[in-house]
Write a structure and sequence with these properties.
Blueprint lengths: L19 E4 L4 E4 H9 L3 H9 L3 E3 L2 E2 L5 E3 L3 E4 L3 E2 L2 E2 L11 E5 L3 E6 L16 H8 L6 E2 L2 E2 L10 E7 L2 H12 L4 E9 L6 E4 L2 E3 L7 E3 L7 E9 L3 E8 L6 H8 L20 H12 L6 E9 L6 E5 L7 H8 L10 H4 L5
Parallel strand pairs: 13-20
Antiparallel strand pairs: 1-6, 2-5, 3-4, 3-6, 7-8, 9-10, 10-13, 11-12, 14-19, 14-20, 15-18, 16-17, 18-19, 20-21
Helix pairs in contact: 1-2, 6-7
Length: 349
């Protein structure tokens, strides 16, 4: 049954919930306060306040904000109050969703661009989870305010996501993700030309001066991305990208790090056409003008079904809103009307 719409006069406060508990799957992490801020989508100040108040326990003991966690550590977090902001219920949000697969324990979605995955400051009531609440889909596992979330996509990244409906399946999928048994393959348009497949192994952390950005830093968490050129255009390449880890903004940061930022990326774009000269710059301007967002799409998802053991493989073709961009970049009008853009470009294997 669809979740009821929230009355405009109703309180956003939820009833007091038991502590959130979860286990660290990464081999190591940075500071506890930074880890909690990233995992719970709260500010570092709120995270530090929770720790200082005793609301956070590691292995049933209070801990300092500077503590570094290890694989297997058990965290317990009381989220009744985050600096005066109460824990919120997930209100219903009527928004169309492209469900690729669904059974009793999990679902796979093709997330549209512009949709935030879970509630966070600035987007409390208009996220993917709010849309699932309106649909009547019940999810489990994950952190407070983000049930069912196994992995995330940025707001302006489209494509495939898997979500868990039960705690058991959430744990199994999260473990498989940590053990690199969930394959996430992305399609991207990046500036410049990449001659050969490349592995980028560079640690990622919050930018020291801008908390909304990530950066390659020696103190960051280990991150590995494989990048393979698929099609070469005048001023940019169409590439296949595979994640070994899943850090925030990882693909965008790593492509920028090697000098080939994602076309249309407003944060890590690295100057785009402004790096070019002469006729190349004119082509770069033409490409950038038709980029509605970052040209990044989660095109393929592979994993073993956590209950049946069946091999699952899902594909989502290059999205409609990015087709004019790849048509201009490739100077190929056929790309606008094709039903199988990725296959046409030689992306699929």
């Amino acid at each position: 049954m669809p979740a009821p719409q929230k009355s405009p006069h109703s309180s956003p406060c939820a009833a007091v919930e038991p502590p959130l508990t979860f286990q660290v799957l990464a081999s190591s992490t940075g500071r506890l306060d930074c880890f909690l801020a990233d995992e719970l989508s709260i500010s570092r100040t709120q995270s530090a306040r929770l720790i200082a108040s005793g609301a956070v326990q590691v292995n049933n003991e209070k801990s300092r904000a500077s503590r570094c966690l290890s694989r297997g550590d058990l965290l317990s977090v009381k989220l009744q109050d985050l600096g005066g902001r109460p824990v919120r219920t997930i209100a219903a949000y009527d928004h169309p969703l492209d469900v690729v697969f669904e059974d009793d324990v999990l679902m796979v979605l093709n997330k549209p661009p512009g949709l935030v995955v879970h509630p966070a400051p600035g987007h409390w009531d208009d996220t993917l989870l709010n849309a699932l609440a309106a649909r009547g889909t019940r999810l489990a596992g994950g952190g407070e305010g983000r049930p069912g979330i196994v992995h995330r996509l940025d707001k302006d990244t489209s494509g495939l996501m898997v979500l868990a409906k039960t705690d058991d399946v959430h744990r199994k999928l999260s473990r498989a993700l940590s053990n690199r048994q969930v394959e996430r393959i992305y399609a991207a348009l990046c500036w410049g030309h990449i001659d050969d497949p490349v592995e980028v192994d560079a640690p990622i952390a919050r930018h020291p001066k801008d908390r909304k950005r990530m950066a390659v830093l020696a103190t960051g968490r280990q991150a590995t991305t494989w990048i393979e050129p698929v099609a070469r255009f005048d001023v940019c390449d169409f590439v296949r990208v595979k994640l070994a880890t899943g850090r925030t903004h990882q693909i965008r940061v790593h492509l920028n790090h090697i000098g080939h930022p994602v076309v249309g990326d407003p944060v890590y774009g690295g100057g785009g056409h402004r790096r070019m000269t002469g006729s190349q710059r004119q082509r770069g301007v033409a490409v950038e003008k038709v980029a509605p967002r970052q040209a990044l799409h989660a095109a393929e998802l592979r994993f073993e079904h956590p209950i049946t053991g069946e091999s699952c493989r899902f594909r989502a073709d290059w999205p409609q809103d990015l087709r004019p961009l790849v048509k201009v970049a490739g100077n190929d009008a056929n790309l606008l009307d094709r039903d199988n853009v990725l296959e046409y470009l030689g992306f699929a294997k």
